[in-house]
């Protein structure tokens, strides 16, 4: 199976499967073994999906890799943005916070797509002060960079712009 990872790098994975029975019950499962993701150990997936041919094995591996991406997305939300500790009173408020954070992560993903072309993205990653210059986890580096940049703003927008202070508008008055 061929999988496309970062930088459009295609990686070939070898898949194998066998039937397995767990010691505490007598149900039959299928153990899918994925070689090629790590040099040390293969990834092992235990599933109750019936596997009849090569396409079924590939489907199980792709489903798990898709789930892995979703789990990484939520892990990033929890770790980088401390989403677990946001306290609100209603479910609607929590859904609104989740939607705003998801939109923000979409913007961060757009920045990550332009990693080599946009000076803004390069400066944000530099501001993150990450140990590694090259990383496959651009989303967390960009999020940390934005957080570090915004941490310098203590007084709000007044410090960054010259705001013209106008006198109160004096309306014409009719004295009767």
What would you note in describing this structure?
The structure is a single chain. This protein is an alpha+beta fold and 176 residues long. The chain has two domains: 1-68, no CATH class; 86-151, no CATH class. It has four helices and five strands, in the order βββββαααα. A hairpin with a 6-residue loop joins strand 3 (14-21) and strand 4 (28-35). Helix 2 crosses helix 4 and helix 3 crosses helix 4.
Summarize the structure in short.
The chain is α+β, with helices and mostly antiparallel strands and 176 residues long. The protein is built from four helices and five strands, in the order βββββαααα.
Number of helices: 4
CA-based shape = elongated
Which range best describes the helical content: under 10%, 10-25%, 25-40%, 40-55%, 55-70% or over 70%?
Answer: 40-55%
From the helix content, strand content and strand pairing, which structural class follows?
A: alpha+beta
For the record, give the distance between the C-alpha atoms at the N and C termini, rounded to a whole number.
Answer: 89 Å
Number of strands: 5
Q: Which key features would you list for this structure?
A:
4 helices, alpha+beta, elongated, two-stranded antiparallel ribbon, 41% helix, three-stranded antiparallel β-sheet, 5 strands
């Amino acid at each position: 199976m061929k999988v496309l990872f970062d930088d459009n790098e295609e990686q070939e994975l070898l898949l194998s499967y066998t039937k397995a029975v767990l010691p505490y019950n007598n149900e039959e499962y299928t153990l899918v073994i994925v070689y090629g993701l790590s040099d040390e150990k293969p990834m092992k997936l235990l599933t109750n999906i019936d596997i009849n041919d090569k396409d079924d094995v590939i489907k199980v591996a792709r489903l798990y890799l898709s789930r892995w991406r979703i789990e990484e997305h939520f892990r990033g939300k929890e770790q980088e943005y401390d989403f677990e500790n946001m306290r609100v009173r209603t479910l609607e408020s929590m859904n609104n916070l989740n939607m705003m954070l998801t939109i923000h992560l979409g913007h961060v993903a757009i920045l990550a797509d332009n990693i080599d072309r946009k000076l803004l993205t390069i400066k944000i990653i530099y501001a993150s002060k990450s140990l590694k210059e090259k990383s496959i986890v651009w989303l967390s580096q960009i999020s940390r960079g934005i957080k570090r940049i915004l941490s310098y703003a203590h007084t709000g927008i007044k410090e960054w712009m010259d705001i013209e202070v106008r006198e109160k508008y004096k309306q014409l008055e009719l004295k009767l």
